[in-house]
Structures are given as structure tokens and as C-alpha cells.
Amino acid sequence: MRTDSQSFHIAELRGLACILLVAYHVVGVPGTGMQVDDGSIYRYATSSFELIRMPLFTFISGLVYAYRPARGGALPSFFVKKLRRLGFPFLVVSTLFYLVQTRAPGANGSFAPGAMWEIYVYSYAHFWYLQSLFLIFAVVALLDAAKLIDRPLPFAVALGLAMVACQTIHTESNVFSINETFVLLPHFLLGVAVTRFRDRLPRRALLGAGAAALLVGLALHQASLFGVIQHYFGWNSVVALLCGMGGAVTLLHVMPSSLVFRTVGKSSYAIYLHHAFFTAGARVALHKLGFDDAAVFTVALLAGLTGPMVLEALAQMRPWTRVALVGKA
């Protein structure tokens, strides 16, 4: 049995996560995006993956982090790299997005905060994820540096506490997206566990447990979407943990090799950072030209995937644009 990272199609999995994310932002929430009816197939499809999208991104981050975890003597270097990878693009791209959102017609500027400084402190657009991911890296790196989660039992305790915190901790101000940090931390830790303890986690048993959790979670979530259960399952619910953790483990094992998904996955970070510029531009233009929802969705989705790829290639041409726009040295 292969146990290294090459036994999984991680790039393809990133590509799938990107496609789900861009599709979600093309459709948007009520009042944004395509502004389709709540009962439309587009709204239903994106809502069906609501509890899987961001947990999948975070699970992959944990999976990859565990191959080169932080160590005590290398903590300063680790945090410098994370600031370059996450911090600089967060400041630059969120600023550009705010300026476009508040000035471009049809860009849903009413959903932007009144003061620009708020976008750096509070949860804003899709950039909240960079804040949360940095905090998650910081927490796990400090635990690793102190060698507190090297062994299965203390790791299981940490994962259990993270799952409890996911469902119980919530702040009103949500400074630096701390609420989402607690929501996503269990998924990151699960990714770390799959890599770190792979010799103790038989693939068949792991897939079976993941698939069972996913099926239970999906059944309850779909029952909620169809009104069979009169309850909304948020990101911090047990159902969200079942869908997110079960979905990530299942998809990790069943994701096939695919040139399309792999190509998208290799540019996943650039797509995450910049897709909204291209989806919004395509959507506004097509709406003005009178195209129907199917055309708007298809073209905007393709624009949100390919536009950032082109931008990433151009950004590679200068050292400062590599750092500022895609977080690369």
C-alpha cells in the first residue's frame, strides 16, 4: 500500500475545490452574483456543497503542511514564509478588490464596509480565509514546535477540543475572522492527521469512516435544503463536521487523475485570490448584453478560472508582482 502524497491526486483535489468555490461566487448569495431565485437549480447546487467547499480547501492545507511541519528552531522562518505567502497578497489584493467593489457599477459595493481599514481587521469578502488560515497555521505551528501533537493520543485530544470549539466559540466582532478560524481548525487538523499518522490509518478503514460520515451528513443537509427538516445547518454544526471531514477524506481517496482538474489545481491560490475580479466583470457584461443565466454562469465560471491563471503567468515576470499578487518568492 502506498502511503506517500503521490498516492493521492492532491492537485486535482485542489482543482475541484477551486471550481466549487468559483461556481459559488458566480451564483452568489441573495443580493449578489447572478441574483437568481432561492429555488433555482444554481442556488440549490451551490448550497449542496456549502458544507464541503472551504473544509476541503483547509483539509488539503493541513495535509500538505504535515509533510514539512514547523519546528521550534525554524519558527521565525516559518512565519516569515507564511506572511509572504498569505500576508502580502491579503493586503494588496483585498485593497484592490475594495477599490473596485466600491467604485465599479454593478459590483455589489453596498456589501463593502464604509471604512477601508475595516477590511484588514474584520472578515471581508473571500479574503477572510487568508486571515483564518494564517491563524490556523500559527496555532498548529506553535503546537508542533512544542511537540504537543506528535503522538496520536495528544493529537486526538487536540482534534476533539477543536471540534468542540468549532461548535461553541463565537465572537460578535469576529476580529481577524476568528470565528471561521475555529470552524475550520478541525478540518486542518484532520488533514495533518491523515499525513502524520498514515501508517496507523489503513486506507480502507479511513475511506469507510469518511464515506459513512459523508453519507449521514449529506442526508441531513439535503433534508434541510428540501424542508424535510426545519433547521439550517451552519458551518459550526455537527452536520457541517460530518460533511466537511467526511467529504474531504472521501474525495481524497476517490479523486481520479485529470488534466483539467490538475491544471486548475496548480493555480489554486491565484484563482482563490483573483477569481472575483473576473467573475464579476464577465457577469456584469453578460447581464448588460441580455444573456440568459446558463450563459452567464458558464462564461463567468470559465473567466474566474482562466483569468487568474493568465494573471499568475504575468505576475511571474517581476519579483515584486510575484510576492504582491500570488505570494511567491
UniProtKB/TrEMBL annotation:
It is a multi-pass membrane protein. One of its GO terms (cellular component) is plasma membrane. It is found in: Cell membrane. The lineage of its organism: Bacteria, Pseudomonadati, Pseudomonadota, Alphaproteobacteria, Rhodospirillales. One of its GO terms (biological process) is enterobacterial common antigen biosynthetic process. It holds the Pfam family Acyl_transf_3. The keyword Methyltransferase does not apply. This is Acyltransferase. Residues 13-311 form the Acyltransferase domain. Coiled coil: none annotated. One of its GO terms (molecular function) is O-acetyltransferase activity. The keyword DNA repair does not apply. Belongs to the acyltransferase 3 family.
